[in-house]
Amino acid sequence: MKKYLTLLFLCIISFAKLEAAEAIIVVANTSDKSIQLSRQQVRNLFMGGVIPYNLDAIALPPENQTRVLFNTKVVGLTEARIQSYWAQMRFTGRKRAPKEVDNESSVLEYLENNIDAIGYLPGDISIPDNLTVVYTIR
Amino acid sequence: MMYRIPYLLLVSSLVWLSFAPSLYAETNDKLQLSGFARVVMGYIDDKDAQYLGYDNSVSVDQESLIGLQADYQILDSLAVTGQLIGHTADQRDSGIEWLYLTYTPTNSLRFKLGKQRTPFLNYSDVIDVGYAYPWATLPQQTYPRHFFSTFDGLMANYEISNSLFVMDIEGYWGYFEDDVMIAERQMKAETDDLHGLINTIHINNWTFRGSYHQGKTSVEIDDITQFSNLLSQIGFSESAKSLATDGLTEVFQFSASYETLDYFVRAELNHIHADFVFVPDTDGYFISTGYNYFPFTSYISYSKNETEYEQPANDIPLGLSPQLDSLAYGYLAIFDQLPVDSSEAFTLGTRWDLQAGLALKGEVSLIRGKANDRAFFTFDDADFDRKALLYLLALEWVF
User: Fold this and answer.
1) How far apart are alpha carbons B242 and B130 in whole angstroms?
2) CB of B88 within 8 A of CB of B42?
């Protein structure tokens, strides 16, 4: 019995860990700590649309695993489709893709140094006090 | 005057650019350089006909092209953009395709002033950027190539977003002046007071776009104008009017698409109406569905168009005198020669996204037309069955 309980406990721990690793948080450097965004607003913002807040989105490069998770969970489109969308927007003078930074630690560094910047990060990353988590998806 | 770039120049530009450092990423914040290129290889299985310039031998110089874009941010809210395109096809002009100033007073409002692509249909302004759509080519049945593609003028765009939807409203006004190819004749065309309204709504996985466009078009066809004047002087005003070389052009368009991670369904329909000689009323539509299995997307499409010319007038009496008879036959002969481009196409294809910014597509289309129609084919033998398979292989690149 004890063996089964231990096994169950290990399973729960590993699932919890997996969930934390697969969760995505959207983090902003904003003076208004009360901001909470909906999935639709986050999607709009990272697809070049307008939302009621003046925030500048930054993104990770196409092959990055956090970006893949963000595309799947929040945008709901494949990377190929997102790339096509940005080609259409850029060459018709409509919108520009968010600035890309190399990796998750560069996102944190960029957010800390730029007021009103917003980016997505894995759920298990520790966030400095001056940044605000404005959206979480598990 | 038609300009085209030699195929060798296109290939050498591509090779050079592939060794150059990433232009887009490395330029400074104020000036951004970017570009796109496509090499499209095509072949049709019928030795009696040509379709969109493709024939029974493999050719790469019909739709291959290279485009370069420079954006310069003058002030926070003011930018200038230029886009230069080199086409390999001799039917397409190479040169400046876009050159405009963008003024963005707020996040949701944008004005563009200058030379721009006319946004008639969903993909009209991005037709040359093959990377932006899944298919190897946009269906000729819905995207007729003879359509005037750019205008000079002002475009305003306003975006509204809330928790339910994002809506884009675009309005534009301007004019167009260039050589066009209509009914196998090249002529100078002018469209004044060209304006349109476009509404695009995104709701969850759906995107809907509806638009209306109109302009006053006049074309220069001296022989037709002279003949029309002659008919008018003799008193056959109906016949004279039916040969008008100016009139209203209208375009109605609606499209819908549904996209998820796994699949897409896209459909578009349009109606083109022109009040002057040689341009028929056209109804076109396409529907396409595709399945994504990264890095591939496979799709199946169907497209169809019906064109109809205005009927000739019949106020010239027949059988009264040989002179009137020859006038009537001369008049009717103009209408008899007009090519009917009604046709349909079934397409199967796959897009392979090799890496971000680079895709390879292969597709095969069965093109069919009715026995007496031209159906966008070019052929000498009247017995040609108006049926052919078109094979396309396209390499698409954005940088």
Assistant:
1) 39
2) no
B132/A78 CB distance under 8 A? no
Q: Taking an 8 Å Cβ-Cβ cutoff, which residues of chain A contact chain B? A: 38, 40-41, 44, 49-51, 54, 62-63, 72, 76-81, 83-85, 87-88, 90-94
CA-CA distances (angstroms) from residue A79 to A75, B287, B362, B397? 10, 23, 20, 15
- One digit per residue, pLDDT tens: chain B, 399 residues? 344 555 555 555 555 555 554 454 445 679 999 999 999 999 999 998 999 889 999 999 889 999 999 999 999 999 999 999 998 887 777 889 899 999 999 989 999 999 999 999 999 999 999 999 999 999 989 998 766 689 999 999 999 988 889 999 999 999 998 888 777 778 888 999 999 999 999 998 999 999 999 999 998 888 889 999 999 998 999 999 889 889 999 999 999 999 999 999 999 999 999 988 888 899 999 999 999 998 999 999 999 999 999 888 888 988 889 988 998 999 999 888 888 889 999 999 999 999 999 999 999 999 999 988 888 888 888 889 999 999 999 999 999
Instruction: Please tell me the distance from the alpha carbon of residue B97 to that of residue B69, in angstroms, as a whole number.
Output: 10
A87/B132 Cβ within 8 A: yes
Indicate if ipTM > 0.90.
no
Could you tell me the end-to-end alpha-carbon distance of chain B, in angstroms, rounded to an integer? 30
Helix (H, G, I), strand (E, B) or coil at B26: helix
- Which uninterrupted H or E stretch holds A45? helix A39-46
Q: For chain B, what are the domain ranges?
A: 42-59+97-398
Q: Give A102-136 as a DSSP string.
A: SSHHHHHHHHHHSTTEEEEEETTS---TTSEEEEE
Question: Quick one: fold of B42-59+97-398?
Answer: Porin (2.40.160)
Domains in chain A, start-ordered, CATH in brackets?
Answer: 23-137 (3.40.190.10)
